[in-house]
């Protein structure tokens, strides 16, 4: 179908911002916060006296990330 050469002059209604209820965001925000804290623990504190896992495999796995984020490890 051919389009007219002159666009229509209909007035567009202003857009209304989308509102998302806090009840829908809160579980995901809590999940993200807990996941972030767990990752921060493993990268920053999983070594030495506060070690949850025995051995050095967690330390070696997160070694470069630890230096990248500024945590001292040796």
UniProtKB/TrEMBL annotation:
<dbReference type="Pfam" id="PF09489">
    <property type="entry name" value="CbtB"/>
</dbReference>
<protein>
    <submittedName>
        <fullName>CbtB-domain containing protein</fullName>
    </submittedName>
</protein>
<keyword id="KW-0812">Transmembrane</keyword>
<keyword id="KW-0472">Membrane</keyword>
<dbReference type="InterPro" id="IPR012667">
    <property type="entry name" value="CbtB_put"/>
</dbReference>
<feature type="transmembrane region" description="Helical">
    <location>
        <begin position="25"/>
        <end position="44"/>
    </location>
</feature>
<keyword id="KW-1133">Transmembrane helix</keyword>
